[in-house]
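Model it.
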Amino acid sequence: EFILEAEELLKLREILTRVYVQRTGKPLWVVSEDMERDVLCQQQKPKLMALLIL
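Modeled.
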Protein backbone atom coordinates (compact mmCIF):
# COMPACT_ATOMS: atom_id res chain seq x y z
CA GLU A 1 0.00 0.00 0.00
CA PHE A 2 2.91 2.34 0.70
CA ILE A 3 4.09 1.92 -2.88
CA LEU A 4 0.64 2.77 -4.22
CA GLU A 5 0.57 5.94 -2.12
CA ALA A 6 4.03 6.92 -3.35
CA GLU A 7 2.94 6.38 -6.95
CA GLU A 8 -0.14 8.51 -6.36
CA LEU A 9 2.00 11.30 -4.91
CA LEU A 10 4.25 11.19 -7.97
CA LYS A 11 1.20 11.46 -10.24
CA LEU A 12 -0.06 14.45 -8.27
CA ARG A 13 3.34 16.10 -8.50
CA GLU A 14 3.36 15.59 -12.27
CA ILE A 15 -0.10 17.14 -12.55
CA LEU A 16 0.94 20.07 -10.39
CA THR A 17 4.06 20.58 -12.48
CA ARG A 18 2.09 20.54 -15.74
CA VAL A 19 -0.44 23.04 -14.37
CA TYR A 20 2.33 25.35 -13.21
CA VAL A 21 4.10 25.10 -16.59
CA GLN A 22 0.88 25.87 -18.41
CA ARG A 23 -0.04 28.84 -16.21
CA THR A 24 3.41 30.43 -15.93
CA GLY A 25 4.78 29.71 -19.40
CA LYS A 26 8.05 28.53 -17.86
CA PRO A 27 9.76 25.47 -19.39
CA LEU A 28 9.11 22.14 -17.72
CA TRP A 29 12.73 21.75 -16.65
CA VAL A 30 12.69 25.15 -14.90
CA VAL A 31 9.50 24.38 -13.00
CA SER A 32 10.77 20.91 -12.08
CA GLU A 33 14.06 22.27 -10.76
CA ASP A 34 12.30 25.05 -8.86
CA MET A 35 9.91 22.59 -7.27
CA GLU A 36 12.75 20.25 -6.37
CA ARG A 37 14.58 23.06 -4.61
CA ASP A 38 11.36 24.69 -3.35
CA VAL A 39 12.37 27.94 -5.02
CA LEU A 40 8.84 29.18 -5.55
CA CYS A 41 8.84 32.54 -3.89
CA GLN A 42 6.33 33.37 -1.18
CA GLN A 43 4.47 35.65 -3.57
CA GLN A 44 3.91 32.84 -6.09
CA LYS A 45 2.73 30.17 -3.65
CA PRO A 46 -0.72 31.70 -3.04
CA LYS A 47 -1.17 32.11 -6.81
CA LEU A 48 -0.24 28.48 -7.34
CA MET A 49 -2.72 27.35 -4.72
CA ALA A 50 -5.43 29.43 -6.42
CA LEU A 51 -4.62 27.75 -9.74
CA LEU A 52 -5.03 24.33 -8.19
CA ILE A 53 -8.43 25.25 -6.83
CA LEU A 54 -9.64 26.24 -10.32
